[in-house]
Amino acid sequence: MNLAPAVPPPSLSASDPAQLESGHSLWGDAWHRLRQNRLAVAGGAALFVLTVLCTSGPWFLQASYQDQNLDLGATAPGAAHWLGTDTLGRDLLVRLLYGGRISLGVGLSATFVALTIGVSYGAIAGYVGGKTDILMMRLVDILYALPFTIFVILLMVFFGRNIILLFVAIGAVEWLTMARIVRGQILSLKKMEFIEAARSLGLSNRRIIFRHMIPNILGPIIVYTTLTIPSVMLLEAFLSFLGLGVQPPMSSWGTLIKDGAEKMEEFWWLLVFPGSVFSLTLLSLNFLGDGLRDALDVRGSKD
Amino acid sequence: MLLPAVPRLITTTLAALLLVSCAKQPTNVERGFREQVLHLGNLSDPRDLDPHHNFDDSAFYTTMALFEGLVNFDPIDLHPVPGVAERWEVSPDGLVWTFHLRANARWSNGDPVTAEDFVFSARRMCSAALGAEYSYLFHVLRGARDYLQGRQTDFAKVGVKAPDAGTVRYELEHPCPYFLTLLAHIAWFPVHAPTVLKAGRIDEPYTGWSMPGKLVGNGPFALVSWRQNQELIVRKNPYYWDAARVQLQEIHYHPIESSEVEERAFRTGQLQLTYDVPANKIDLYRRTQPTVLLESPWYQTRFISFNLAGPPFNDPRVRLAFGLAADRTQLANFPVPRLASAAPSASPPGFGYNYRGPAAMGLDVERARHLLAEAGYPDGRGFPRVEFRFDASDRSHDLAQALQEMWRKNLGVQVALASQENRLFFTSLNRGEYQFALDSYFGDYGDPNTFLSLWLTGAGNNHPRYANPAYDRLIDEANHQLDPAHRFALLADAETLLLTDAPVAPLLHEIRFRLRHPSVRGWHGTLLEMHPLQDVRLDPP
Amino acid sequence: MLRFIAHRLLQAVPVLFIIIAVSFFMLRLAPGGPFTAEKAIPPEILRNLEAHYGLDKPLHVQFFTYLGKVVLHGDLGPSFKYSNRTVNEIIADKLPVSLELGGLALLVALVLGLTFGILAALRRNTFLDYLYSTVGMLGICVPTFVFGPLLVLLFAIQLGWVNASGWYTWQDRVLPALTLGFVFSAYIMRLTRAGMLEVLHQDYIRTARAKGASEVRIVLRHALRGGLLPVVAFLGPGTADLLTGSFVIETIFQVPGLGREFVNSAFNRDYTLVLGTVILFAVLIVACNLVVDLVQVWLNPKLKFE
What we know:
The structure holds three protein chains of three kinds.
Chain A: H1 10-13, H2 17-21, H3 23-36, H4 38-60, H5 92-128, H6 130-145, H7 148-159, H8 163-190, H9 193-200, H10 205-213, H11 218-242, H12 253-262, H13 268-296
Chain B: H1 5-20, H2 28-35, E1 37-41, H3 57-66, E2 71-73, E3 80-82, E4 85-90, E5 96-101, H4 115-125, H5 144-148, E6 160-164, E7 167-171, H6 179-183, H7 193-199, E8 221-227, E9 231-236, E10 250-254, H8 259-267, H9 282-288, E11 293-297, E12 300-306, H10 316-324, H11 328-332, E13 340-342, H12 365-374, E14 387-391, H13 394-411, E15 416-420, H14 422-431, E16 436-442, H15 449-452, H16 469-479, H17 484-501, E17 504-515, E18 520-521, E19 537-538
Parallel strand pairs in B: 1-10, 14-15, 14-16
Antiparallel strand pairs in B: 2-3, 4-5, 5-7, 6-7, 8-9, 9-10, 11-17, 12-16, 12-17, 13-17, 18-19
Helix pairs in contact in B: 10-12, 16-17
Chain C: H1 2-29, H2 43-52, H3 59-73, H4 87-122, H5 127-141, H6 144-158, H7 171-200, H8 203-210, H9 215-227, H10 229-243, H11 247-252, H12 259-268, H13 271-299
Helix pairs in contact in C: 1-13, 4-5, 4-7, 4-10, 5-7, 6-7, 7-9, 7-10, 8-9, 10-13, 12-13
């Protein structure tokens, strides 16, 4: 039974390659479709609001993330502190907003690093194939198996504490699975007729990979990206606790959730509010991601 | 269509699974009274059950069940009571101690415990090749330090003798009023020579003789089984000389690292006794189940170590300013009240002796600011960027953040915080690669000397690298003093000197918290976290 | 295909060698040793302990001694933290536990993840799709260290159906397997949905539909093959992760598995145990990825074994 596509996907094979190059209509259409998707728009809006709140919110609040009141301790949400205070008597709302700067910053940029490396690496390995593929994928195996905790400790020892290192440490582990996924997809695309056609038209390899193949596997890439972001944000809390990255009293959503999880039976607000904001962000990203994927999917839109 | 049915199928299966599992079995606690089996939280697995190779807190509990020294601790206040020795006498100069062994002391295989066993054990501890971490507790024995450090190769010259099978005699370097509490430390416990020698040489580490099936001990319990990360089981030893007194039939040690996990296991009746209590749950237990919560002071001090090697902490005024700007009362009472007690001095109170360290360190913002100004930093202006180190634990994170804020408010100095993975942290303290750090120490034996000898010139745990001949001389003089009052006066002088030079700033004495089911009788909180098990029993509450 | 497998096994040799070598020297570069403790050990004692383990020899000598033992005798050496046990014994004791927990969790994850992933793709952009996606995302947003204790609070403490922790009876397997499996299922669900969507609009599916094939047949016989590619690629390292245990789950439920050793051995600087677990993990990674590549070819016959 041959299940391989008998006909190349119509959108690409039928169209003139030159038309593909004119990004305007493609991206314009995508943008138009994205705006039609209400969930994606809601997700995007929620993200935008959160980002604005986290970046500019702290300027309008009097308290700082490190202002303590040990006598006050942990108090439930109320008029003075809308989201309550933590065990050191610090305002949770303020810490949540400051934490958003770190978490959104680290989460998005480390994921971007992982995404860039993972996609290009996987695509090149899959497309070039042969010995290069073998070498590249064995390197992925090696990196995946190295002891991560020791790697973190060494980073701390040799480079001191530095937020850039956080991106390096996180980026260094998170791209590996992405590369494997992308490679698998590229391998299956490589044999399709429209790619052969593109090659026979004399398009450069780079153009074939980035213009013709990657757009066809955006779905899994986008989904895996949205799956990477939460694990990156939580990993940050673990690394910070060990001394790499963000040091107290500066907060991040990861550290707030970790802290709240230990106290959830006594001080529910310490877990519920950071957890909700975290989940809301990721849900928004997720819906935005799904919307993006649908918008960029030329085939799906024909249904 | 088949597919939509699947989710329902899954939910039903899961629900059914959970329902089947609710066939309720009696909990460990319920079985406990009937069978006298104690389930105990024990933090982590010990490195080894060999009493001479034990360095972890959790190892104390297991070792105290399996072995017994010449002297035991009283379960309440830890005063020395007869163990393998039924009586003893000390020479008038305090240098020669003679112990008379009870005739019915037996190893768990039935062999008699003899004086030779104690000589063998001392020789083993004093062999550097064994690598016994607590060997420094033997330095008090005449010639032991030389033997350990290779300047003496004839063990006959070391001050331990067995004139006959029932008598052990120790000769000391200097009078040692706390010698009996040293003997109750696991490092001085005897090991069974034939068992040790069957597995390897006397000074060969980790030969496996202390594993289940091989270990022979002389304690109230004998080893049954040990599964790592699950449980270690000991059972009543019928050969123990005081077996009639031992009520428990079995003890199960559960190595549970997280206190939250432990607390949940306690709540479902899986443990009768926990190792710790999550700090934020303490208040709840105080309000709702005060009888379950066991609070006891601990022979421990948390302090700040300053690195004396470089600016700005090479200036004693700066060190004192940082010490005086810390509000110990506040530190001791957060996140819950009475989590610790304020430490005005380096050595904790306790042990029935009337030694009290000088109350030198307390909150004095005015003096702190004045000292800092004198040192050239009025209101903290121009103070260099300094980094405060602490280990990766929740408690240290909390304390460091509170201290940072106190220094900012009281001194006007913004300190950077730096948490460090634990072994990195200990390494940087040992190597002097830090500026100032949150340090701590718990006492090995019940005497202020265990703390004050930390800061002798060149001592292993002297993290500030403090070196003051006057201090060394005072401690040494105290060591040669027989009269307790005079001795404590000398120690107090030394401690006053220490707190004036302020290489360290004491902060807190921690309090230990445990959850103890009301059925557990005869287990008490003690200063050294040593818990004799002979009198422990389980009664229905 | 046999040639392909043989080639891959040959490649595994240098891969394992590099992993062992790099891990070995990384470990030794990290400050603090297996005997670093809160209280410093007297220097003469430390020297002897190090000599006992051969840590006083030059590093390259230690490395080749270690490598020789591993290769010639399969001897991973004595553990530093659990002094009377060898790493072989520790792994032999704990791997079965981790395999059992990981296997159960994988089962939960595959059943939940594939089912809901396929359903979500088929019902794309309907309420059900959004519901599954949201629950799936929550599975990812709620970390195991929150989800696990919540399950314990509900089923062990409130309802009293199971024990809060421990690994003795089969009831003790339920909560850990569910917690671990649930998070994993969320990943699988999202990836399945994405992979299926890529496939469902392809022409061969339309052709099959046009020919009047039933929906179930289309999904199971046609779409799944292409749709599972991303999940399969993810499952390679994912399975190796699952089978070697999870630190968080094992801590929360007091499971005597390997996951805790992976993390704690690094903190304890238990050199041999770190290396032993790394070697085990590396072998699993190589094996799982090999299986994945075989499955990928099976799923897409157009690919050839290269």
